Amino acid sequence: MEFKGKVIVVTGGAKGIGRSCVEIFAARGGQVVFSDIDEASGAALADRLGNDVAFLSGDVRRLADMEAMARLAETRFGGLDIIVNNAAVALNGVIDEIDEERWTTVIDTNLTGFWRTMKACVPLLRRRGGGAVVNLSSVQGLIGFQGWPAYAAAKGAIIALTRQCAIDLAKAGIRVNAVAPGTIMTPMNEKIFEETEDAQALIDSWNRAHPIGRFGQPMEVAELVAFLASDKASFITGEIVRCDGGLAIRGE
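Given the sequence above, the corresponding structure tokens read:
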């Protein structure tokens, strides 16, 4: 029950890594408010987890939605201690082929969405006298993959944003860290497989890219998120921690 008495917000909490984060915080005593554009999945998850979990149908591309999430945390649970920035989309296309709409959608969701969440929620952490922010970046913010410039640009910017915010918010007692997952079996990646002609060949190649020899699972990432958000990580801030099965260090 390490999160008993703690209030947590999670964006993109209805599926994948976000869903596992909501589950792990709730299981360990936290009170959780999460948002997602998937209203049906979000409502079902909140209903299953009980009264200490609240769902808000919201889009990180709208500041008003993130402000509503912050208000819900305050009115229902009395404040806020932890922010988990997770909501993201994955749209590919090499730099001279991706159209402006796809580029803008990725940047607006995966980067500016993080800013909107923190703008709305950080004041509540200040009122508590401190807290923690965990941002979901990616190994694609550290190393290159063919055909993903918008996604990589956003995830790389999250790394810079994390370090900057760690400096800016340290005096307020707020720690800011990021997690950089490798390939995780989430609905986002499942959608990529569905749209690929030879899904099994892609799955096999991605498995081989990880020295551990397999994809990661959402709960493996959520465990790291929970650690960085917890008091066990009280002297850690401004760090980018990979959870990638060795993907970023592979020498091939």
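The mean pLDDT is 94. Try to locate this feature in the token string yourself.
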